[in-house]
Amino acid sequence: MTPTPDLTAVVLVGTLTPSPAPSSSELLGRQVLDALGEHGVTGTVIRLVDHDIKPGVEKDMGEGDAWPAIREQVLGADILVLATPIWMGQPSSVTKRALERLDAELGESDDQGRLLTYGRVAAVAVVGNEDGAHHTSAELFQALNDVGFTVPAAAVTYWVGAAMQGTDYQDLDETPEETAGTTATLAANTAHLARLLRQSPYPPS
């Protein structure tokens, strides 16, 4: 039985492909959101490349900057999921820009001295056609933890195809059992930790 929804999530998709074209990263990100839904989580998916996110490390880079509205959704959610493709062994440039903008949170705190990101839980979804999922998730985990997010156990799900071939995740006839299993575990652990942190916040800094 699915718990009554009491948690929210935002999935930031770092595909380089604008909507409405299909995206493997968005597909896996939506699968994570669906899996979270089985644990009382509702949420939204944002394809970052569809928005004019200015370069910089401030929370608002001025006229036309789409980040402030996205930031508001991130800070209003219990869970942040970053879904990224692998390019040249790295998270996408769009994903890295989101991380650079999150750097501004190091200068923001509540009335008890805690970062506004404290108490929010982060997870990662990675797709690619070459190896690199562990390296990519390691980069994202470190950056997310640096700016105040909490990373639960088994907080990454991924799919990488064989080297030097052209199959995308979205081209598969069905979700591989291994990926589906890691997505389910990610969802269970992420929702569990988010609920615990809501009930028992971090102490004042």
Helix content: 25-40%
CATH architecture: 3-Layer(aba) Sandwich
User: CATH homologous superfamily, by name?
Assistant: Flavodoxin domain
Nearest-integer average pLDDT? 96
Number of domains: 1
Strand percentage lies at 15-25%
- Total count of strands: 6
Q: What is the overall shape? A: globular
The low-pLDDT segments are none
Q: What order do the helices and strands follow?
A: EHEHEEHEHEH
Distance between the termini: 38 Å
CATH class: Alpha Beta
Biggest sheet architecture = 6 strands, mixed
Radius of gyration: 16 Å
CATH topology: Rossmann fold
**What's the helix count?**
5
Q: Which structural class do you get from the secondary structure elements?
A: alpha/beta
What attributes characterize this protein structure?
205 residues, alpha/beta, Rossmann fold, six-stranded mixed beta sheet, 34% helix, Flavodoxin, FMN_Rdtase-like_dom, Flavoprotein-like_sf
Description:
34% of the residues lie in helices and 19% in strands. By secondary structure, it is α/β, with parallel strands linked by helices. It has one domain (7-199): Flavodoxin domain (Rossmann fold, 3-Layer(aba) Sandwich), CATH 3.40.50. Strands 1, 2, 3, 4, 5 and 6 form a 6-stranded mixed β-sheet that branches. α1 (24-37) crosses α5. The longest helix is centred in the last third of the chain and has 23 residues, at 177-199. It is globular and about 50 Å long. One of its GO terms (molecular function) is oxidoreductase activity. Residues 11-154 form the NADPH-dependent FMN reductase-like domain. It comes from Cellulomonas cellasea DSM 20118.
